[in-house]
Amino acid sequence: MRQELEEKNEESKVCFKELSKPGKEPLFKLEEKEMLQIPGIEEVKDQTPENWYQTYNLSLDGYSMFPQPDPISQEEKAEIVKRFLHGLKKLLSPKSNWTFIRPLKLSLENCVRCNTCADACHLYLASGRKEVYRPNFRSEILRKIYEKHFTLTGKLNALLGEEIDITYDLIRRLFELAYRCTLCRRCVLYCPIGVDNGLIARELRKLFSQELGWAPPEVHQKGTRLHLKAGSSTGMNPQGIKDTISFLEEEIAEKTGKKIKIPVDKKGAEYLFIHNAGEYISWPDHMEAFFILFDAAGINYTISSEPLGYDGVNYGAWYDDVELARIAVNHLKIAHSLGVKKILVGECGHAHKVFCVILDRLLPASSPLAEIKRESCLPLVWEIVKSGKLKLDPSRNDFYFTLHDSCNIVRLMGIVKPQREVLNRIVPPGRFREMNPNGVKNYCCGGGSGFAIMGSLNFPTFRKKVGIKVKLCQIMETFQDVLKEDKIKLVVATCSNCKGTIREMEHTYHLFEKYKITHCGLVDLVVNAMVDIPPFLNFEEML
């Protein structure tokens, strides 16, 4: 064991030195014969234009999500290195990074380099165990940079020539490495001492955004900036949400025969219901399901038409504390102005993370906004189902099922049982099968932390070839014994981001055409089982 670790550490040293070297050519390219192969699945072809290797910086692994050109002069490059080091100093300063400083420093200082985290990482496994995708690889680079510039031991090691060179090329590749992680934090679950390499990757992203202004355009310009400007990261403005609500009310009446009035800007409700606004556009039937369920169960809720108030996503969770705080505080102000008791978070994993976890670290206890409770919709849905208020017929959901556990809802927050209890009440016996592994040990869908929406340059190819591969393999294995049956096989996902990624799997690998594999949310199935309305699910709309 000791010899294996020493050999692995020597291999890392070679990689570290390579990262500092100038050049446009990728340090390595992914080899299909080494990558995860799935029987019955045809590989995605890499069609990166040859001229991109000189036009853009693809010098890590041949992929990038950042179309910004490199600076030309050495002075500009030196300034970027200087600003990076300044940002690193702030990142490890309690005054500048009070929100995450403690877990960050503990994780940086206590890694024993056992590499147990590696085999927990879906990206590392799918790539064919490429060294640079090890969760603690980027952490080790950051650690070495910090030691060299801010500790006596590191400076002495540098004099002996044992450390890496801090160059622009290293910084640029480290930026790419920060986005070769979906922040799923499965690695921390398997680490013997709880080192959080997912947090380190996220804090690295923060450094690049807040100090250098580097972030994928879909996350920043088309994400938090658009959210703050228009009211939603989808671009939907307040009039747009009002028009959408009217449309949903009409559709609900057509589908169910029930005229439901969706409460908008209602004062003093129990809940302010905030979902990912992308659902209104991509899965309107899912939003209808929530409103049908709430109406049938007599839930006292409202939605907001105020800018930001109808879109619960917060891309700042992936890369920037300032952007996160601007959006989150606005959400709380809207809830406070409506006089609601709680914010109810819809089926959106990253919204769960911000509302139910990060805001507790961000808000001063003295703020009246901190008194607004925030909770997941999943326990409430289970309370509704088990209350007996609804007449449910499981035979209506005569499909095969599996459940994808969202990283942020399940692994981060520990909400494991409610969604399973609901499924056991609304699907026929023997139809539900668990993935292996499942629960807190489940694999990321491959679209977390912005992966699902990052479409610049050739990053979508990386996502399809590497990011989603392990989850795709899991789904295929779960349905292996029924793949050839002409019956629908549903992957239930309680997160918008996960559903979007699974939908991409379906389209990329023709899963529905070949195997009748598709996806849906949890609430959709509950409503589909309600006996007093016609069957609700429409798979043509969901594909």
Automatic annotation (TrEMBL):
Task: Specify the domain of life of the species encoding this protein.
Answer: Bacteria
Q: Which Gene3D superfamilies match?
A: Alpha-helical ferredoxin
**GO molecular function annotations of the record:** 4 iron, 4 sulfur cluster binding; metal ion binding; oxidoreductase activity
What sequence ranges are listed for the domain Cysteine-rich? 402-503
InterPro entries assigned: 4Fe4S_Fe-S-bd, 4Fe4S_Fe_S_CS, Cys_rich_dom, Helical_ferredxn
Which keywords label this protein?
4Fe-4S, Electron transport, Iron, Iron-sulfur, Metal-binding, Transport
In terms of PROSITE patterns, this protein maps to: 4FE4S_FER_1 (PS00198)
The chain positions of domain 4Fe-4S ferredoxin-type read 108-195
- This protein is called what? 4Fe-4S ferredoxin
Can you name the source organism? Answer: Thermodesulfobacterium commune DSM 2178
